[in-house]
Write a structure and sequence with these properties.
alpha/beta
Amino acid sequence: MSTAPATPKWKPRLLTAVGAAALAILVTLSGITAPLDAWVYDRLILGAAPDADPRIVVVDVDQKSLAELGRWPWSRRTHAQLVDRLRLTDVKGIAFNVLLSEPALFDPEGDALLARAISRSGRVVLPVLAEPVQLNSSTVELMPIPEFAASAASLGHAEMALDADGVARTAYLRAGLGSPHWPALALALLQLDQPAGAGTELPGRRLVMTGLEPASASEWVRDYEVRVPFTSPPNAFRHVSYTDILNQRIPASLLRGNWILVGVSATGMGPLARAPGQPPNASMSGTDYQANLLNMLLKRAAITPMSEGWQAMLAATLAALPLLLSLLPGLRHIWRPTILTMAGVVVLSILLLRYAHAWFSPVPALLVLALGASLWIYRLLRRTHQQAQSDSLTGLANRSRFDHALDHELRIARRSGQPLSLLVMDIDHFKQLNDTQGHAAGDAALKSLGRILRSRARRPRDLVARLGGDEFAVLLPETSAQAAATIATTIHVDLANHARKPHGANAGAPPPFTASVGIHTYTSGDDVGPEDVFDRADAALYRAKQAGRNRSFSHTGEHDAIGAPVTRA
């Protein structure tokens, strides 16, 4: 007849759930899982990146351009010619990812020509960078010289945010010294094609709260944090050589109506970064970084990282969920809701990334759930181990554990010179008890004897074991023969007291019974093994049973035997 699983106690599980939630919050806010968070994100983002928009064209200052136009930096006249060429092809906008923060001292006319070309185009965006003046000094904004800044349609910050591992995962749509007043370079380029006042609602996580005290004027402040879904590979956009545009080798039809980003890609020139999921030797230029940012904005694919508060609360909820679910019928075995929740955490993170364009790291919740699962497995293994070494009826140690303990304590007794006593006993006429009163009565007698023995073997190293059937053993380290005999006598007194209690049919108490005890005490100098110690105690038990038939005790030197039958009331 099968029985339903016991209902779990809700108070301990509720408290454990609160502890799991608190641990998940601590792990999330501490940031200790940041490297693993980044690794998981890099794997999941590969399948969520949009295709490269064909309207984005990267104009490269490459090795071919350097070979034809000479060493870098070039005359501003050259850049003026490029701007005029692109203006004639009717492009949507031009973003120069080239810093023009210093005037050309030996060619001021070149600066003037470039300023006029930028003004004629009316669709050129120039970069702003933040750099410290000196090491460990305050930060300043490196802006285009006044002629260029006044002629440009817009300015945008060209910061390429890198994580500690050198991977570019994040971008900030607005940033600036003291306040986030500059749009990102790609955002400034995109806004050229938007009506005034349109597109003010930006994606991303807000980092600057309104109403707070403004930051220091020397602090680089960021806002609207997003994760960029880079194309694979990150330079999957159309690339053309600077010199090919300048010498009209590219048909105007391939440039008309496109977004143009001009930057340096030649080896050894300009900063490089690695996109998520790319091998360490695969790098991208700052212009490709801006191209991916523009592609993200055009495709409305910006990924908003969840705030730390929401991340912590969601992780806490998921960490506590299995313990709460285990209170429901059908999910009472904790491993079932744990597996379901762990799978749900991963699926939730993927769905949020793919369809909600939000990043929730599953690592803190999974870490707490895995810790809980490990503790559950440890307890299960420990319980299984204990069950393998214990008797299922009485809960005492079984024969296997007893044999191991006897061998171990005998070794200790040899080294220390302390005595080791062993009591072996069984219930008199146990078969007759089973036959006349049933197996339930026999089991009750075994349990009762086990409780009595446990009450008399109280020290940490004392071991009470059921060896099988109605045979029991009590292992008493550092116990002399006299002390062991006293304990055996006390056990018989307990049995006598038990026999005097009323035992009605419905009392639920075990029937009265008698037991015989055999004792052997090992002393130093006796060269015997564990089997010999047990055989001598077993022989003493046999003599005790023989003595019990004659209502007598027998003591045979080192092999003490005690028989103390109790007359039934």
